[in-house]
UniProtKB/TrEMBL annotation:
Species: Mucilaginibacter gilvus
Gene3D superfamilies (UniProt xref): Jelly Rolls (2.60.120.10)
Official protein name in the record: Crp/Fnr family transcriptional regulator
Origin superkingdom: Bacteria
SUPFAM superfamilies (alphabetical): cAMP-binding domain-like
A Pfam family the protein falls into: cNMP_binding
Chain ranges of the Cyclic nucleotide-binding domain: 29-113
Amino acid sequence: MNLLIESIRRYIALSEADEASIKSLFREQKLEKGQHLLEAGNVCKNIICIGQGLVRYYTIIDGEEKTTYFNKEGEFVCDYASFLPQIPSQINIQALEACLLYTISHANIQLFYERVQHGERFGRLALEVVYLNLINQVRSLYNDPPEIRYQLFLSKFPDIGQRVPQYYIASYVGIKPQSLSRIRKRLTGKH
């Protein structure tokens, strides 16, 4: 659980008592490649920290999967729009690799906020990051051409480009795989 502790420490200082509380509130879980952490229509019951592996968020629109986000080691995974009010999700979260996860339930996150000295601050800061990422992604989708969106993907996720199938990257950027191939060739030709 060291990566979990370090991931929380990026936001708040932790005492030994805080660390003990965290270890008692989170559960370890393993997921195979291709399995879902969450399927649309189900309620998101956990916040998850990825200890090892990679996941993608996607929706299905007109029968076609649209990848909307990726998370990797040391990052938190959750559909907060489902988790916070405990209502059915509209998104899917799928493991792209075998994953080692640390999960905390809706009830236990409330205990986390109570027991960990700066637990509520952690919650606020973590949600601010999620909110800013979402706003920037939506802004880019409406304002930036595909080549810029691909470059933003590379800057935001520099270490996962080789771990993710190209058609998921194309979907995330909002283009067809053939268009992504052309963009990649143009960018390679510039160097």
